[in-house]
């Protein structure tokens, strides 16, 4: 039986966190993935840990902003330890901070790796989570994702649907980065022009993703965590329910 994780960002616009944890546990998820604003908004991580335990949930992975990892590694490590995480993932770089050339992205990759040294020394896996911008070719034809991961051993949490949005084959990317993967985001994209009120995203199994090709590639990779996510569902209970129903068929 596979363990499926639920990215709590998917429910950020809905009910109180304890209700979300109960909902996903009742649906059969055994894990959740945290995100930066979640920790920042909590005065008591111990309560979150207790709520997780009460629902039989683990939080093996969490997203942390690059600035936090770089500027306050001690706090990053404290949070990860308190919540019994196995991996710290940096998820995003705002548009106004994205380099314009290959040298800049290579330098960012070096800075990302350097910022993660205390995290890794503390015993955690450490990785990067992609969106679509990492697949936009630079003037010299290189790709930001390749440069971010060059000359270091930063792991990768591959967001499969963002790769699809970028026009890349998710299965091919899984195979390409097979040994680098720590996790994948199980996420779906609606057909062109559909689900505009959900920013074009779909419940897992209800979009265009070719799961019959993707999942065997994931199975053959080093990925340890399968994280279900939707960036903007109108109904998080619908999304969570339909997505795990699909995921259980994998």
Offer a quick outline of the entry.
This protein has helices spanning 17-27, 36-40, 45-54, 66-71, 73-82, 102-115, 117-121, 144-149, 160-165, 170-176, 211-219, 236-247, and strands at 4-7, 31-34, 58-63, 87-90, 125-129, 155-159, 181-186, 188-189, 201-202, 225-228. The protein is an alpha/beta fold.
Describe the model:
It is a single chain. Helix content is 40%, strand content 17%. It has helices at 17-27, 36-40, 45-54, 66-71, 73-82, 102-115, 117-121, 144-149, 160-165, 170-176, 211-219, 236-247; strands at 4-7, 31-34, 58-63, 87-90, 125-129, 155-159, 181-186, 188-189, 201-202, 225-228. The chain has an eight-stranded parallel barrel. A two-stranded antiparallel ribbon has the order 8-9. Helix 1 links the parallel strand 1 (4-7) and strand 2.
Helix content: 40-55%
Order of helices and strands: EHEHHEHHEHHEHEHHEEEHEH
Overall pLDDT confidence:
96
CATH architecture: Alpha-Beta Barrel
Question: Which characteristics define this entry?
Answer:
250 residues; alpha/beta; TIM Barrel; eight-stranded parallel β-barrel; two-stranded antiparallel ribbon; 12 helices; 10 strands; 40% helix; globular
Protein topology:
Blueprint: E1 4-7, H1 17-27, E2 31-34, H2 36-40, H3 45-54, E3 58-63, H4 66-71, H5 73-82, E4 87-90, H6 102-115, H7 117-121, E5 125-129, H8 144-149, E6 155-159, H9 160-165, H10 170-176, E7 181-186, E8 188-189, E9 201-202, H11 211-219, E10 225-228, H12 236-247
Parallel strand pairs: 1-2, 1-10, 2-3, 3-4, 4-5, 5-6, 6-7, 7-10
Antiparallel strand pairs: 8-9
Helix pairs in contact: 10-11
